[in-house]
Amino acid sequence: MRTQAPFGRRRVAITGAEDVGAYRVLHAADLDGPVPQPGQFYMLATVLGWGAGQDDRPFLPRALSFLGAAEGQLSFMLEDVGPGTRRLCALAAGDELWLTGPLGNGFAAPAHGRRAILAGGGVGIPPLAAWAAALADLGVAACAVLGFRDAEHARGAQLLDARCPRTVATDDGSAGHHGLVTDLLSAQLDGDAEAEVYACGPPRMLEAVRALCAARGVPAQLALEAGMACGFGACFGCVVAVRGGGYARVCVDGPVLDADRLDAVPVH
Predict the structure, then answer these.
(1) Which terminus, N or C, of the chain has the lesser number of Cβ atoms within 10 Å?
(2) Distance CA 184, CA 148 (A)
(3) Would you say residue 55 has pLDDT above 70?
(4) CA-to-CA distance for 30 and 10, rounded, in angstroms?
(5) Residue 76: alpha-carbon gap to chain centroid
(6) How many helices (H) and strands (E) does the chain have?
(7) Where along the chain do its domains lie?
(8) Strands 196-200, 220-223: parallel, antiparallel or unpaired by DSSP?
(9) How far is residue 248's CA from residue 238's CA, in Å, rounded to a whole number?
């Protein structure tokens, strides 16, 4: 069962923020909100300066998976890539945030006896970090393979729970393995064909993970990225085609979907 979001949005205070490599991590007090499940997400907008400025942007809230949740505090990791994320990255302690969530479906525990392999890329790290901590608390064996653009972005790997061993790949070879995260995933699966894979990252990476797991008959759960305008399934802006016909709305049927429900991950 998914954790249900309270009705409406909540006004919460930013309690702290710091830079981790190329990323910004925000901490917000959410004392009255429910405890989210790893893989769920929130819709975020700043209380001030949202819907104003150049071309009245940003307007729609931004969908972000949570990085961590403990003792009435939520954490989010993001990168400045446009008007919305730029405004969110500018927040500091004492600023305020409109928050709706938790929304969507999260990860499900691996079948009994299976090891969890977490595969992530870039800003796909947050739901995997939350899942790594939850698996460690449950005593489930897990490891992570993480791909980044360069060494500065690879510093995001330190946000995973220390109890989860991780290996890093970078596109330019400036940290860890020089190559793709799927190189590392393939090596892990060579050593453990009974694992279950959990992945989040850019669509091309997710499609590569899906295809690799399908070829090996390995179960996988994919946290999909999609442009979400509402977060409640009303606008149908985030649909993906599913095997056998029809569509799934990423915001309500996902964002976590079993890989075998998809013939392919859409690459926009």
Answers:
(1) N
(2) 12
(3) no
(4) 8
(5) 10
(6) 5, 16
(7) 10-103
(8) parallel
(9) 8
Q: 191-207 in b/e burial notation, b at 16+ Cβ within 10 A?
A: eeeebbbbbbbbbebbb
Q: What are φ and ψ of residue 113, in 5° steps?
A: 90, -10
Torsions phi, psi of 260, nearest 5? Answer: -75, 0
- Pairwise CA distance, residues 203 & 244, whole Å: 21
* DSSP for residue 25: E
If you ran DSSP here, which 8-state letter would residue 35 be given?
P
- pTM score, two decimals? 0.95
- Please give the Cα distance from 126 to 139 (Å, whole number): 20
Residues whose CB falls within 8 Å of the CB of residue 187, separated by 6 or more in sequence, listed in order: none
Residue 215, Cβ neighbours under 10 Å: how many?
Answer: 10
Decide: helix, strand or coil at residue 214: helix
- The string of pLDDT tens digits covering residues 121-148 is 899 999 999 999 999 999 999 999 999 9
In this structure, how many other beta carbons lie within 10 angstroms of the beta carbon of residue 255?
27
Superfamily of domain 10-103: Translation factors (2.40.30.10)
Cβ atoms 14, 44 nearer than 8 A = no
Tell me the chain's radius of gyration from C-alpha atoms: 18
Q: How many of the other CB atoms lie within 10 Å of CB of 10?
A: 17
Q: What is the dihedral of CA 141, 131, 196, 245, to 10 degrees?
A: 170
